[in-house]
């Protein structure tokens, strides 16, 4: 979980940077590149969290939580 928290903190920093860029009216291309980077980092973190949660459920034979996670995924 420490890895996920660290990644989320980095994404938070990217988002704060994006806010500053928009406030300072940076070039559109630069903002778009940063948006893409932040989105990719958040997507990767989401995948890691999902993978970790599913493995935990499998290890504990927790089909109820597994079912909830799968329902959340399907809402995407």
TrEMBL record:
One biological process term in Gene Ontology: negative regulation of DNA-templated transcription
Coiled-coil residue windows: none
Gene Ontology MF terms in the entry: DNA binding; metal ion binding
One family name in Pfam for this protein: Trns_repr_metal
InterPro entries hit by this protein: Metal_Tscrpt_repr (IPR003735), Metal_Tscrpt_repr_sf (IPR038390)
Family, as annotated: Belongs to the FrmR/RcnR family.
Protein name: Transcriptional regulator
Species of origin: Prosthecochloris marina
């Amino acid at each position: 979980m420490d890895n996920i928290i660290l990644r989320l903190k980095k994404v938070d920093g990217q988002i704060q940077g994006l806010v500053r860029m928009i406030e300072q009216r940076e070039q559109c291309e630069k903002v778009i590149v940063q948006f893409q980077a932040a989105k990719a980092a958040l997507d990767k973190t989401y995948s890691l969290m999902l993978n970790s949660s599913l493995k935990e459920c499998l290890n504990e034979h927790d089909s109820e939580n597994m079912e909830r996670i799968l329902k959340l995924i399907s809402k995407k």
